[in-house]
Specification:
Helix content is about 10%, strand content about 40%. It has four helices and 18 strands. The longest helix has 10 residues. It is elongated, with a radius of gyration of 20 Å. The mean pLDDT is about 90.
Length: about 290
């Protein structure tokens, strides 16, 4: 991983390290508890089979002779539900005028990935129904990883979605027990500017704006294609060699009410504007915005 991302992790423990054990996962408190037996109360929860054909934790939402519907679990992702492209388009089409923002993350290939992010008051994935969870579109690598002639990838549950579930995994017998939570959701850390600035590719230094309609960035006059030069007087054009976190994701997750002065370039024109960050996605967003 590039050093300019300042990765905080010491390492990664994947599914093969746990797949023969029995454990409960509490994403809200960030705890994994190894247990000897399945708690009695969880036996009445939604029960899904664990797929044996994948190297990560994947669940079978339903199965027939010809095709299994696959739900992946990725506790290393901070996102909520990452939907396959078709289901993402269907959900957006049936929920117009939703407030949205952008998030960026990095993978070795293709590098920086930009995603639009929305909020679902409720959403069904087979027999599993979650409430109050952020949603976004899965990228092509997720779809390819979990798809085959016998399987159809439906979605990936990231950390924000796992916080909306009580989970017990029985790796010994290949069963996952899930119970959706009905308690109010925890505050969700998201991009409160409603815009992200990312390079076109790994060889380009220009941080190019992608702006959500009606967002604080939009209201501040920032438009798609603007190039970010400064952030609160700090030159960000040398972000690859700067030891500080890159400007594409960190400052825009500051608290609501933060004023962010941005200097940008549009064509031959350089201009400065101030955006006031606000909560775009629930649960802390103004009620009339959803």
């Amino acid at each position: 991983m590039p050093t300019y991302l300042n990765p905080p992790e010491d390492g990664v423990a994947g599914w093969p390290a746990f797949n023969y054990g029995v454990f409960s996962l509490d994403a809200a408190t960030k705890k994994i508890m190894l247990v000897t037996n399945i708690p009695n109360e969880s036996l009445a929860w939604i029960k899904l089979h664990i797929s044996t054909n994948h190297h990560d934790l994947t669940l079978e939402l339903s199965a027939n002779k010809n095709e299994k519907l696959i739900l992946a679990v990725d506790s290393g992702s901070g996102f909520g539900i990452q939907l396959n492209p078709q289901k993402w388009r269907e959900w957006k089409s049936s929920h117009p005028n939703q407030p949205s923002t952008f998030e960026t993350y990095y993978t070795p290939n293709p590098g920086f990935v930009l995603r639009e992010e929305l909020w679902a008051d409720n959403i069904s994935l087979g027999s599993l129904r979650l409430t109050d969870v952020p949603i976004t579109e899965a990228d092509s690598s997720d779809v390819a990883l979990h798809s085959s002639p016998q399987t159809k990838y439906v979605a990936t549950l990231g950390l924000a979605a796992l916080k909306r579930l009580d989970i017990v995994i029985d790796g010994k017998h290949g069963i996952a027990y899930l119970r959706p939570k009905t308690t109010p959701p925890l505050p969700y850390q998201h991009n409160r500017l409603g815009a992200d600035f990312v390079p076109q590719d790994l060889h380009n230094d220009d941080l190019i704006a992608h702006v959500a309609d009606g967002s604080p960035a939009d209201e501040a006059g920032i438009r798609d294609g603007d190039i970010l030069l400064k952030e609160d007087k700090r030159d960000v054009t040398k972000w690859r060699t700067n030891t500080n976190p890159p400007p594409d994701i960190r400052p825009v997750q500051q608290p609501a009410g933060t004023k962010l002065e941005l200097t940008l370039k549009r064509g031959d024109k350089v201009f400065t504007t101030t955006a006031v960050l606000r909560n775009i996605l629930p649960p802390d967003a103004p009620k009339n915005s959803n």
